[in-house]
Amino acid sequence: MGKIVILAIESSCDDTSAAVLCDGVLLSNVTASQKVHEEFGGVVPELASRAHQLNILPVVDTALKRAGVDKKDLSAIAFTRGPGLLGSLLVGTSFAKGLALSLGIPLVEVNHLQGHVMAHFVRTGEAVRQPKFPFLCLLVSGGNSQIVLVGGETAGAVGSGMHMPKMTIIGQTIDDAAGEAFDKCAKVLGLPYPGGPWIDKLAKQGNPKAFVFAEPNIAGYDYSFSGLKTSFLYTIRDLMKADGSPTVEALAAHIPNLKEDLCASLQYTIIDVLMRKLRKAAKDLKINQVAVAGGVSANSGLREAFLDYGKRYKWDVFIPPFAFTTDNAAMIAQAGYYKFLDGDFCAIDEVPFAKTTI
Ligand code: KG4
């Protein structure tokens, strides 16, 4: 077999990304982020799909040029089929279909969440440490919070590049995702969107024990963050009432370090909730290979907690490089490569989907 060259396209939310992978090694990964949503405090779906339409051609063109690959050298096109915003997914899916059809090459559909997990297998040339099967992956993003069992009895040898591993969700949020909790609480504090990185920044100067918020009490390995969000909101509302402040800004002017302490306490609570369930799963299933993936894995407190739990419970921990935490096409290319090797292609009439489990 000649070289296997995969072009991957990711357009599930507000990042247009394209990547080129050759024989399992990443050659390029180009992402255009959309600033248009900042003033609205969240992603506006219609604006997102229009921005994808503007970005997709230059992003794909740049990814091919940076990789030094001509489109006639492509073996297949991998694309994110879902979950995500339907209008956004339609742009990437339609582009992938059109290009694959015109080049006469196969299409590979990739589940966005499985892509996040596969970020741990992206190789940029130098050797990378990869989790061994079975492993647990805490998948935390703006739309999802899940504990995924990767591999297990049917796992193939992904490390040797042969199969997509089996993925089973053993726990997930029953309401808001962790990233959503970060973003919504940040909005209450008047911080820009997305609020996660801002909370992370302010938390560094705050006291994580300054405020105590209600923690969920959910059975098994499932999560819940909507009660925590309400508790955060009520804490601020009560402080404003007691102080007679009409706004959060007025309150912050009266209480030193208020925003920093709120951010540190919120971040501490979210991480505590995430890690305690993950520890329970690892203990019950007797698994010591533990990974984290998704946008929230960029959080410095969560990264520290992973290292700390690793030492305490003798876990082998895997934290992806920053570039592969938020949405990117490199992870889609990696998943697409393994599916290509498995001969797992999709039909030209496959349609995107907004919601799914893994
Ligand atoms: O995976 P991702 O890029 O997009 C989705 O597929 O959802 O995740 C975006 C989420 C947002 O909620 C954002 O606030 C959060 O990841 N995030 C963070 C940090 N960086 C990004 N949350 C907390 N701390 C961070 N440093």
General description of the model:
- With 358 residues, the protein is of the alpha/beta class.
- Helices cover 41% and strands 17% of the residues.
- The chain has 10 helices and 10 strands.
- It has helices at residues 45-67, 86-103, 112-118, 178-188, 196-203, 226-243, 248-254, 258-285, 300-313, 329-341, and strands at residues 5-10, 15-22, 25-33, 76-82, 107-111, 135-140, 145-150, 167-172, 289-293, 316-318.
- The chain has a 5-stranded mixed beta sheet with strand order 3-2-1-4-5, with helices on both faces. A 5-stranded mixed beta sheet has the order 8-7-6-9-10, sandwiched between helices.
- A hairpin with a 4-residue loop joins strand 1 and strand 2 (15-22).
- Helix 4 (178-188) packs parallel to helix 6 (226-243).
- The radius of gyration is 21 Å and the shape is globular.
- The structure holds 5'-O-[(R)-(carboxyoxy)(hydroxy)phosphoryl]adenosine.
- The site of 5'-O-[(R)-(carboxyoxy)(hydroxy)phosphoryl]adenosine has 19 residues, from helix 4 and helix 5.
Shape: globular
Major sheet details? 5 strands, mixed
Could you list the spans in which at least 5 consecutive residues all have pLDDT below 50?
A: 154-161
Question: CA-to-CA gap between the ends?
Answer: 31 Å
- The total count of strands amounts to 10
Strand fraction equals 15-25%
* N-to-C series of helices and strands: EEEHEHEHEEEHHHHHEHEH
List each distinct ligand once: 5'-O-[(R)-(carboxyoxy)(hydroxy)phosphoryl]adenosine
Structural class: alpha/beta
Order of strands, main sheet, comes to: 3-2-1-4-5
Roughly how many Å is the radius of gyration?
21 Å
Mean pLDDT: 93
